[in-house]
Amino acid sequence: MEIIKNFYESLFIVDVTGGEDAVKASVAKFVGLINDNAETVYEVNEWGKRRLAYPINDKPEGYYVVVTFKATPEFPAEFERLANIDENILRSMVIRLETEPTVKAAEPVVEETAPATEEAPTTEEAPVVEAAPVDAE
């Protein structure tokens, strides 16, 4: 019998009051948990520190992380359970995606550079118009 696997997207908000090292440790812990239990991790987006719409546990800011992955249907419930136990996670949510996620390829950065030749760029010069003197009376 074939094991059914679905596509999921998880968002979790990490408490930032513990410091940058605590945030990185919590993010690494939960992204590692997803890596260990998911068949494929499509994308990990760290949105960073943002102001919350309303205070959660009297905390106005949180560190947002969004992970898109493919896993068995049992894993999201376990992930939610572990996120609810951890005191550093303010909120978490896992949704099942209807279609396979598409990973957007990063657009290459094109830098405009001057031509390699020694010639100066030619520009058309605007005609010089002299102003008529103004009489100060």
Q: In a few lines, what is going on in this structure?
A:
With 137 residues, the chain is an alpha+beta fold. 21% of the residues lie in helices and 36% in strands. It has a domain at 25-97: 2-Layer Sandwich (Alpha-Beta Plaits), CATH 3.30.70.60.
What does the model show?
- The protein has a domain at 25-97: Ribosomal protein S6/Translation elongation factor EF1B (Alpha-Beta Plaits, 2-Layer Sandwich), CATH 3.30.70.60.
- The protein has helices at 20-37, 75-85, and strands at 6-15, 40-56, 59-71, 89-97.
- It contains two helices and four strands.
- It has a four-stranded antiparallel beta sheet, covered by helices on one side.
- The protein is of the alpha+beta class.
Protein traits:
about 140 residues; alpha+beta; Alpha-Beta Plaits; 4-stranded antiparallel beta sheet
User: What integer value in Å does the Rg equal?
Assistant: 27 Å
* Strand elements, count: 4
Strand order of the largest sheet: 2-3-1-4
Task: State the end-to-end CA separation.
Answer: 102 Å
Low-confidence stretches: 105-109
Structural class: alpha+beta
Which strand-content bin applies to the residues? 35-45%
Mean pLDDT: 83
What is the molecular shape? extended
CATH class membership of the domain at 25-97: Alpha Beta
Number of helices: 2
The major beta sheet can be summarized as: 4 strands, antiparallel
Q: Helix coverage percent of residues?
A: 10-25%
* Annotated CATH homologous superfamily of the domain at 25-97: Ribosomal protein S6/Translation elongation factor EF1B
Order of helices and strands: EHEEHE
